[in-house]
Amino acid sequence: MKQKPKSRIALLRERAGLTQLELSRLVGVTESTVQNWESGRTGTDHIERIVRFCKALNCQVEDLIEDINDSLEKPIPEPGSLSEIHNLLGTEESATTSSSDTKVTQEESANLR
């Protein structure tokens, strides 16, 4: 019996080291949806339409998604002090912390993210 060649989705999924279940969870669909895509039982027409949108508009997929664009347009400023961190988190700064103790290095700030 001749085996059918694997779909591109299956090949890419395997190259990424993912199971069908893992991919389904990352994409936000059921495992059976991934199985259907890989077997060819259901098409990926909607994905192909998105690709055509991007080609027609000369943009990336991310450009079509409002939530991603909104967050990119308004970058979150890096906190420069402990009091700014407390302000961002909505917590109160300890009264015992002196202003000389509130300077945060860039490395410390990066570790908080």
Blueprint of the fold:
Blueprint: H1 8-15, H2 20-27, H3 31-39, H4 45-57, H5 61-64, H6 66-73, H7 82-89, H8 106-112
Helix pairs in contact: 2-3
Put simply, the count of helices is: 8
Largest sheet: none
The end-to-end distance, rounded to whole angstroms, is 54 Å
Q: Helix and strand succession? A: HHHHHHHH
In angstroms, what is the radius of gyration?
23 Å
Approximate helicity band? 55-70%
Please describe what this structure looks like.
The protein has 113 residues and is mostly helical. 58% of the residues lie in helices and 0% in strands. The protein is built from 8 helices and no strands. The longest helix has 13 residues, at 45-57. The radius of gyration is 23 Å and the shape is elongated. The N and C termini lie far apart (54 Å).
What key phrases describe this protein's structure?
8 helices; 0% strand; single chain; 113 residues
Give the structure's gist in a few sentences.
With 113 residues, the protein is mainly alpha-helical. The protein contains eight helices and no strands. The chain starts with 7 loop residues before the first helix and ends with a helix.
